[in-house]
Amino acid sequence: MTIKSNAASVRFDAVTKAFGDVVAVDQISLLIEPGKLVTLLGPSGCGKTTTLRLIAGLEMATGGQIFIGDRDVTKLPATDRDVAMVFQSYALFPHMTVGENVAYGLKVSGVKKPDAQARSQDALNLVGLADLGDRMPSELSGGQQQRVAVARALVLEPQVLLFDEPLSNLDAKLRRRVREEIREIQQNLGLTVIYVTHDQEEALAVSDDIVVMNNAVIAQIGTPRELYEVPSDAFVADFIGEANILDCEIESVAGDMAQVRLGDIVMQLPALNLAPGPAQLAIRPRRVDLHAEAVAETLPGTLLKATYVGTHMEYRIETAHGEIFAISGDVDDLHHANSEIRVGFRDPGPVLIPAA
Amino acid sequence: MNKFVALWLAVGLIGFFVLPWYTTDDAFVSFTWLRDGWPLDADYAPAIIQIFAHGKIWLAPLILFFAAVVPVLRGNPSDRLFAATLTFAGAGGLVFLLLQGFTIGIAGWEYASLEALFGPVERQFGMGAGAVLVAAAFLFLLTQGFAARGYVGGDLFVAGSIGLIIALITAFVFFPVSRILVSAFQDNQGVYAFSLFAEKISDSKIWGLRCLSENVSCGVAWNSLMLAVSVGIGSTLLGLAFALVTTRARLKMGKAFRVLTVLPIITPPFVIGLAMILLFGRAGVVTQFMASTFDIPPTRWIYGFTGIWLAQMLAFTPIAFLVLIGVVEGVSPSMEEAAQTLRADAWTTFSTVSFPLMRPGLANAFLLGFIESMADFGNPFVLGGNYGVLSTEIFFAIVGAQNDQGGAAVLAIVLLAFTLTAFYVQRRWVGKKSYVTVTGKGDAGLHAMLPKRLTWLIFAIVIPWTFMMLVIYCMVMFGGFVETWGRDHSFTMRHYADAFSVTTGEHGLIWSGAAWNSFWTTISISAIAAPLTAGLGLLTAYLLVRQRFAGREAFEFGTMLSFAIPGTVIGISYILAFNIPPLELTGTGIILIICFMFRNMPVGLRAGVAAMSQLDKNLDEASLTLGANSFTTVRNVILPLLRPAIAAALVFSFVRAITSVSAVIFLVSADYHMATAYIIGRVENGDYGLAIAYSSVLILVMLAAVSLVQLVISRRKLGRRTAVAGAEQAGAVAT
Is the CB of residue B149 less than 8 Å from the CB of residue B77? Predict the structure, then answer.
């Protein structure tokens, strides 16, 4: 394999980007280590794409500093940064063949033609399109075009490889395969990859770390498991997977553990540096158990709606603490709408988050 | 070493030390100066010799500005000193160059006070090749200074392009137009006289309203206004009728009406007027027929308001049609379908949904018609009679016996005020609104058909009008084969022979026809102007569509402004501005080329904007992130993808250069006579046969050019219809 990695870290130091009065990225500080695949995740308009374009040099920061490796690139235009980007629309040049597209970056940086051809062929081999160099992009399928875009970016052996929602134009089945391929190439070559998506499942599946963004700031950084299991606030809890957010009371804190009251239930949960007083619980729908008869440490409720969706059942339950959404893998032993029911939580299940 | 600084320093030094400093010859590229005494002769010497041998010592400081650049040749662009030095040297050099140019003219000092201060100096002429290179070098050193400061992201190519376009627009649009203002405030001896200006601008010849009560003609401003408003309304309604027939009547041949949109592009504006004289003039076919059959005595009714109005309606309705067809198609069918499912009948749907949605577009079409009519020179010239309008009065003020430059300038200001107001309203108010509806996403569904009664009404208007257009164009095509219209209707080739005969002589072919001289001049000047015009327009389009930079709004307004300046105003402003140093251009072919470049730039601009907006911006960005700079990106990615737009811009620039008459008529000279000016001259002499024969040849030449490009574009795999349509629109809409 002749495509190498020159992976470098990316560091944001209080970076701000404003378009007129609108602040798209607000004082973000961030360190992305070399060789990691980090996802920027968030709802549309949260500033994740702007953050990516700041790294590429397609937008210029209005404040703060950006480093790639040890080099301050804040004022450097895209042309002079050692990054490559795979665009959402792929942005393949429609008037060039696949081979010419892949060789383009080499050609404009003055690599000799035979070298450029050999290297672009290597890149095409790497993405599994060895024989398609002479085709025009319009003659390829969406998945193939996507791979050409990846090859075109890889061939320059950039310090950082950027992906802007690369899978959003592919159908659902292809998406899973392509994201696995991207991850495989990234791990094999040890590339630094920064990946923008609004699809939380995609983010959980491919990332070393996930940066969740909301309203131009970072909401939480962590591994997929951390984000899912210990969300730091209601936004993250609800955005990564679904979560029931219920008001609760921290009665006391002893060491790392807090005693938490939710109605009649009292639980011992990791305190996560919260002080006694009002707080909230985030509970995943699959961590909710439903019981037809009275069980200790459960909440009483009324089953509003039961929906059969094939692989599982979805329930909505009205309780004194708000509506609870539950998912049960048991599709045979059903609860029925409008019945009185008891709601319990598994362990581990509820996670403490600060009060809204 | 910094390549770009070195390059422009070298260019500047060549300009200073090698090329002739002053204008030498009328020819575009002439090297006769190499044989005629260069480098020592006073006419051909470069600046350095002018300083030492011919007493032009005031040129000496220029070299200091070049010297200032030398220390930063090895500098680092991110260094503050680098940016400051380039900015200082470039700006300083440019300012000094302009100062000496404007203060020292053909009689030494231009201002007596300066002569008293510095003592008498030698005289000097207009700037030549050397001075132009030096100016360019200073300009690009300056833009590099700006780029080094981080302007437009530090992009040299973009900064340079912006600088170039601003410099060109300032020199060839703003500077000449400002000369009109100055000239309006001067009497004919060049003394400032504000009271005279007040007197002139309120003259009853311009604003008189006595026509309302007595049988005299109104002021020319009122004449122009009345004409423009009625042409605007008329062409909008008629254009709407045609647009509705084409898109919403159950009519198979409706599409054929689209051919109409090509007509204004290939028809010199006065040709319609000419054909109307042949039909309805005192000796016209129709007039004679009416006289002999119904005993209706021939009158001169065609000369005056009615005639101009009819001719302009015929000429400008296709433009309104072109605008309105987009508007009518832009009304989303799903809205009409929604109205129908809510139980609105055809008439209610049209009057409550479709029509209100078209209203901004109608206002747009009206204003364009208004501007076109105001700016039109050919038809009022040919058909005006005693009905004077601003554009023709300007011409007569300067060309006629009076040679009243100040008077012409005042009229030009009034005309400019009208068109600029309309232009401003069009851009700020309706222009944007109507664009929103046009550039929506594709929408499924079918347009609602017109209500029956409306359909019949529209047919009753459209069919006779189409017939009249056909007659007019038949007249244009075949009118040249008749001996004398109205008197002797025998077939003859005489007019064509007079114009285009070719005989063989001792030295081969002799182009003995009277028209050949102006014909070849027209073709060659237009052919030179076309790529320059298209290039300037496309470069501007690139900057507007693809770049964000400080001052972009003002830049856009400045570049679109030449749209709104009537040709007559440009013509007179060029005479006022370029008759004297530092830019002495009148009488040359260059002034014609420059005039075409800036008059027709909107053609390339619109074609470029339309096509570039269709190109995914990610393509540029992909190229940039792959390490290409913006110039390489333009060359390798954008230009290849814009090929259809380029072809369209080229041909329409070419064709519009051939058809333009209003500005050209001021700028032609014995050496550079243009076809349209020649034809107008024939019409003045009553030589209608030759005029119409020549016109028909021009139309055929242009039709061939336009068809050729349509063919080329439609064959291209990557062809984008929208780009072509955009260019067509641009071609038609700009005057």
Answer: no
Residues of A in contact with B640 (CB under 8 A): 95
Give how far B626 is from chain A: nearest CA, Å.
Answer: 5
Residue B19: Cβ within 10 Å count: 22
B733 band by pLDDT with thresholds 50, 70 and 90? very low
Q: Which residue has the tokens 């015009």?
A: B533
Nearest CA in chain A to B621: A58
For every residue of A129-189, DSSP letters joined together read -TT-TTS-GGGS-HHHHHHHHHHHHHTT--SEEEEESTTTTS-HHHHHHHHHHHHHHHHHH
Look at B627 and A91 and tell me if their CB atoms are within 8 Å. no
Q: Does the domain at residues B494-733 carry the CATH identifier 3.30.1370.20?
A: no
Residue A287 has pLDDT above 80, yes or no: yes
Segment holding A195, helix H or strand E? strand A193-197
Dist. CA B510–CA A52, nearest whole Å: 69
pLDDT classification of B549: cutoffs 50, 70, 90: confident
Fold for domain B206-445?
A: MetI-like fold (1.10.3720)
Centre a 10 Å sphere on the Cβ of residue B299 and count the other Cβ atoms it contains: 11
- B136/B90 Cα distance (integer angstroms): 10
Query: Could you give phi then psi for residue A55, rounded to 5 degrees?
Result: -70, -40
Q: Which domains does chain A have, with CATH numbers?
A: 10-229 (3.40.50.300), 242-354 (2.40.50.140)
Q: Which pTM was predicted?
A: 0.83
Contact B637 A93 (CB under 8 A): yes
pLDDT: which is higher, B582 or A203: A203
| The amino acid at B717 | K
Q: What is the pLDDT of residues B472-531, one digit of tens each?
A: 888 888 888 888 776 777 888 888 888 888 887 777 777 778 888 899 999 999 999 999
Higher pLDDT, A210 or B709: A210
Chain B contacts of A89, Cβ < 8 Å?
616, 618
CA B464-B467-B472 angle, to 5 degrees, is: 125
Helix or strand or coil: residue B52?
A: helix
Which of helix, strand or coil describes residue A14? strand
DSSP code, position B127 = B
- Helices (H), ranges, B249-304: 263-266, 271-280, 285-294
The beta strands (E) that lie in B481-528 are given as: 482-484, 488-491, 503-505, 508-510
What phi and psi, each to the nearest 5 degrees, are found at residue B174?
-70, -45
A58 vs B153: CA distance, rounded Å: 10
pLDDT band, very low/low/confident/very high, at B717 (cuts 50, 70, 90): very low
Q: Using a CB-CB distance cutoff of 8 angstroms, which residues of chain A are in contact with residue B621?
A: 56, 58, 78, 85, 87, 91
The predicted-structure confidence for B614-632, as pLDDT tens digits, reads as follows: 888 899 999 999 989 899 9
The residue of B152, B547, B614, B625 whose CB has the most chain A CBs within 10 angstroms, and thus the best one to mutate to test that interface, is B625
The C-alpha of B619 sits at a distance from chain A's nearest C-alpha, in angstroms, of 5
Bridge-based pairing of strands A63-68 and A10-19 is antiparallel
Question: Where are chain B's structural domains?
Answer: 3-149, 206-445, 494-733
A82, A10 Cβ separation under 8 angstroms: no
